[in-house]
Amino acid sequence: MCGITGLVLADSTNNAAPEILEALNMLQHRGQDSAGIVTCGQRGRFYQCKGNGMANEVLNQERLFELKGNMGLGHVRYPTAGTSNSSEAQPFYVNSPYGITLAHNGNLTNTAELGEFLDTDVHRHLNTDSDSEILLNMFATNLDKTGKRRINEEDVFNAISELYTQCVGGYACVSMIAGFGVIAFRDPNGIRPMCIGKRKTLSSIPSYDYMVSSESAALEALEFVDIEPVMPGEAIIISKNKIVRRRLDLKSEYTPCIFEYVYFARPDSIIDGIPVNDARMAMGENLAETVKQVLGENNDIDSVIPVPDTSRIIALQLSQALNLPYREGFNKNRYVGRTFIMPGQELRRKTVRRKLNAMRYEFENKNVLIVDDSIVRGTTSREIIQMARDAGAKKVYFASAAPPVKYQNVYGIDMPSRNELIAAYNTEDEVAEILGADKVIYQTIDNLEKACKQFTTKIKKFEMSVFDGVYVTGNVSKKYLENLEQERNDSTRSSPIGSPNISGIDNIFKK
Ligand SMILES: O=P(O)(O)OC[C@H]1O[C@H](OP(=O)(O)OP(=O)(O)O)[C@H](O)[C@@H]1O
Ligand SMILES: NC(=O)CC[C@H](N)C(=O)O
Ligand SMILES: [Mg+2]
Asked: Where does the record place the region Disordered (predicted)?
């Protein structure tokens, strides 16, 4: 889950880059490894700046000023393929045909076959191990087949239709063709999120700016309205104040990733018609039922304590449902980012300690129920429980708003190794023992699904392979999962061969 955005301003004399950066700041929680913006200015020139770091580090005011043009794309990255090297920062670019850039949120599961095809059949060079570079090259190959000097909308829709039959996995993408426009498309199952909004300009002739984004909160902040999801299998072309939308795949099931509601998305976003904040409140409410079943109505809990940030909403609702006091027992250092999306276990572990600090008075001689949105590797919960004990807690119960995370994710969440997932091979009691908790209580799959589903009639099923091992694209082989386990586990990744660092923070397309 990276963050992506694309903007087309109606006034061709305005620059899109400053607002793209603002959107990236709103999407920063989706990726902290690298950031990038590409804009398209006069005579179809691309201007690019990307590199490792947070959006504001990579794109300072000076660099932003150099990104000319009224349309552009932005990306913040959390790697799920390749390395964290700056050469894999996005958007990616190919010069032929036409000049195309692309930014991707998600992960492809058939990169081996696609890479082979690109090399053997169409002789395209791949410079990194990024699946997003493959995706861009597939799009370029499909467009190339037109043989035309200049393409039209029909050609773009055809290229994306073909891409839907070739690329398997999760992909929400924004792309830009030099001098033509911005294109947004979402995989046939709508696994990764994307939405679109418009904003009336101040000019005397009515016209609109258009923006697409992973999350609606970014569009709202920039005063876009009529925000709605890009549908699964839908492609949208935005060019010179004109927008054309088409559903190119209608046969696949609409199955967005449920983990967006659990952890990834901002609470103020509405994803696929489901308000994330409300879904989290419902998770808290439902989890309270399981807590009652496990610990009894008359339990010995003195207070409910959240693990900042994501679980606050869940814990507050749970405490109300149980009629127990909600207490902020951990102070969070606001300058430390999200730990789950950091690369490497040792870094994640240390960061939890630096990010969260237990307040003794909330724990001393108390029985506490600590609530988190999820327990994935157990990095956070193990440290947190130890901190609670060190602060004098008598009993420490731990509740998770997500069910046990047991299986690898292949669609854009970096959970490549089952061996690293604390619940993959351990029972709930064993998990409690490893974490040092008196009891661990998990949400049921059914209750999580209900918490999210109640807000929409459009979604019948979610992508929730991390809980049930069912991969909605249907063709994730055992061999693929075994390779993933071997190639991307933490110890393999701590000594990567790496990709060539030829990009860095750069401006290679500057005029
Ligand atoms: O079991 P683990 O492997 O530790 O993963 C789960 C934890 O990681 C996330 O927190 P994170 O610090 O990334 O973000 P947050 O501040 O939004 O809660 C999530 O909210 C859990 O607290
Ligand atoms: N989390 C994501 O969406 C990652 C996108 C892409 N697979 C990459 O690794 O860059
Ligand atoms: Mg957390």
From this structure: 487-511
